[in-house]
Amino acid sequence: MTTPTLDDATRLDAEDPLARFRHEFVIPAHPLSASDPGPGSNGSNGGERTARQIYFVGNSLGLMSHRARRRVEAELDRWGRLGVAGHFTGETAWMPYHELLTDSMAAVVGCRPEEVVVMNSLTVNLHLLLISFYTPTSTRYKILIEDHAFPSDHFAVESQIRQRGFDPDTSLITVKPRPGAHILHPDDITDVIERHGDELALVMLPGVQYYTGQVLPMADITRAGHAVGARVGFDLAHAAGNVPLELHDWGVDFAAWCTYKYLNSGPGGPSGCFVHNRHVADAGLPKLTGWWGTNKQTRFHMENVFDAIPTVESWQLSNPSVLSMSALYGAMEVFDEAGGIGRLRFKSEQQIRFLDRLLDEVIGDRIENLTPREPEGRGCQSSLRVTNPDQDGQAAFDRLEASGVACDWRYPDVIRVAPVPLYNSFTDIYRFVEILDGILE
Ligand SMILES: Cc1ncc(COP(=O)(O)O)c(C=O)c1O
């Protein structure tokens, strides 16, 4: 097999049925400081005169789409024209605005419409779900998370344990990679679940691990957790919009995710929240409640009797930020028009193979890729570590950034790059490897 060339990348782009969606997005200029059009600009890509970044950081913040901007502007306009009447008027009335997102979001995570709602932000939703699904008793009180979980998840779980009067030292258990390994071994997860068996109240793990990009076997974990009588939930921050999910069929109890990564809702965009339909109408579950979770028909009767909406919407507390939701609505129009997660994943796997081949043949053992190799074990992110002890990984990252590659550095020593199929090209991947090759020379 010969090493892929720039011509190969160009040909793959020309054959790519999703290539046109790149033009739906505003790709930041490079170098940022010199070409940033600044406030008041229309944010367009400005033709091809300005060099664009190789934007490989959609695993952190997805790009702005023109559609998102238009949807936000439309709601600002309606606010100006209608004032409070905007709540009840027109196709995008604000009262039921979140319902515009339900079908798209259900397709992203593989569930039924009554099982998904967009609300709040990720950590807030994790707390709301922990209130409902972490119901410790004197004998069953432990929560399993991963060692070095994303700090927000760790803090949320730790604080919930304390709130219920338990001690994280005895109630919080973790699973970690084997010595010398970077990724979790699936058997170790099921072993620890079985070992803690009757004492295990809850398993809360990521769908895709943020540091290594590993996809965890969510169906197997759910089965193993349920087999010992525990509940199972996932943080899907790095999974939603990245890999196909089947939350309903896997029987997952609950999940939450942010939409500002692969779903392009913009900084601090709203979170998605899933509760399996066997739980959504369970009045016995503890729940923090607010007026947005009560019966929509009688909400404005202003009675102080909570009448739960018989869907996951009953977990809603407040009337949501419509401006933030509208950016997500615009972004999801693009995502859905591209064919949704199925078609995007098909291209993503092509891009992963293309990147892997180039890394193997051009970069070789100058970097180690911590991300699992097989497609079912990973999403679009690759977590790269510079192997030469005389070469500073962070300096290499800085040089990548200075060369126009937007990627990120995760302490202690990983450069994360995520070619996103909705807007990254094969040429982006080729150019990235070319730049990396030059930096590591
Ligand atoms: C895996 C994971 N969990 C939780 C969070 C926290 O998200 P938020 O600040 O939206 O609550 C993030 C943010 O990037 C994340 O990547």
In short:
36% of the residues lie in helices and 13% in strands. The chain has 441 residues and is of the alpha/beta class.
Low-pLDDT regions: 35-44
Termini distance? 24 Å
Q: Beta-strand level of the residues, as a percent range?
A: 5-15%
Mean pLDDT across all residues, rounded? 95
Oligomeric status: single chain
Question: What name does the CATH topology of the largest domain carry?
Answer: Aspartate Aminotransferase, domain 2
Query: What form results from the Cα inertia axes?
Result: globular
Number of domains: 2
Bound molecules: pyridoxal-5'-phosphate
Radius of gyration computed on alpha carbons = 23 Å
Largest sheet: 7 strands, mixed
Global structural class: alpha/beta
Number of helices: 14
N-to-C series of helices and strands: HEHEEHHEHEHHEHEHEHEEHHEEHEEEH
Do you know the CATH architecture of the largest domain? 3-Layer(aba) Sandwich
Q: What does it look like?
A:
With 441 residues, this protein is α/β, with parallel strands linked by helices. It folds into two domains: 6-61 and 341-439, Alpha-Beta Complex (Aspartate Aminotransferase, domain 1); 82-336, Type I PLP-dependent aspartate aminotransferase-like (Major domain) (Aspartate Aminotransferase, domain 2), CATH 3.40.640.10. Helix content is 36%, strand content 13%. The chain has helices at residues 6-15, 32-35, 66-82, 102-109, 122-133, 151-163, 168-171, 186-196, 218-227, 247-250, 322-337, 340-363, 393-402, 426-439; strands spanning 25-26, 54-55, 64-65, 116-119, 142-146, 172-175, 200-206, 231-235, 254-258, 271-275, 367-369, 382-386, 405-406, 408-410, 414-417. Strands 4-10-9-8-7-5-6 form a seven-stranded mixed sheet, sandwiched between helices. Strands 11-12-15-14 form a four-stranded antiparallel sheet, with helices on one face. The longest helix is centred in the last third of the chain and has 24 residues, at 340-363. Pyridoxal-5'-phosphate binds next to helix 5 and helix 6.
